[in-house]
Design a protein that fits this description.
The protein has 3 helices and 4 strands; from the N terminus they run E-H-E-E-H-E-H. The chain is α+β, with helices and mostly antiparallel strands. Strands 2-3-1-4 form a 4-stranded antiparallel β-sheet, with helices on one face. The mean pLDDT is 95.
C-alpha cells in the first residue's frame, strides 16, 4: 500500500520545516520507499510497517509541541508494489511525455 501523510504542529510559528525534517529523518531511516513533496510524504509498505512509522513520527514531534494535525491518505491495493513511481509512470504513459517533478 502507499500512504501519503503529513504532520503539522500547531502553535510553533510560521515555519514547520524543523519538525518536517525530524519526521523525514525517521522515514528515511525506516528503509521503506518514500518520496517527500511540498505538502507531505508518500511511503510504501505493508499496513503494520507504515502505520508504525507514522506513529513513530507523531511520537517524536508531539514531545516538542502541544498539538498536531495529522493527515493520512491510504491507497491499499492487493499485490501492488513499487506504486510510488508506478502510478506516475502510468500517467506519463497516457500523456505521452514526462511530467514536471
Amino acid at each position: 500500500m502507499i500512504v501519503q501523510f503529513s504532520i503539522v504542529p500547531l502553535g510553533v510559528g510560521v515555519s514547520v520545516s524543523e519538525y518536517v525534517a525530524k519526521a523525514v529523518k525517521i522515514v528515511d531511516e525506516s528503509g521503506l520507499p518514500y518520496k517527500l513533496h511540498a505538502m507531505g510524504t508518500i511511503v510504501e509498505g505493508d499496513w503494520d510497517e507504515v502505520i508504525s512509522l507514522i506513529k513513530k513520527c507523531r511520537d517524536i514531534i508531539i514531545e516538542e509541541t502541544e498539538r498536531l494535525l495529522i493527515d493520512i491518505k491510504i491507497d491499499d491495493r492487493k499485490g501492488a508494489i513499487e506504486r510510488i513511481e508506478g502510478k506516475v509512470l502510468s500517467v506519463e504513459k497516457r500523456l505521452g511525455k514526462e511530467i514536471k517533478k
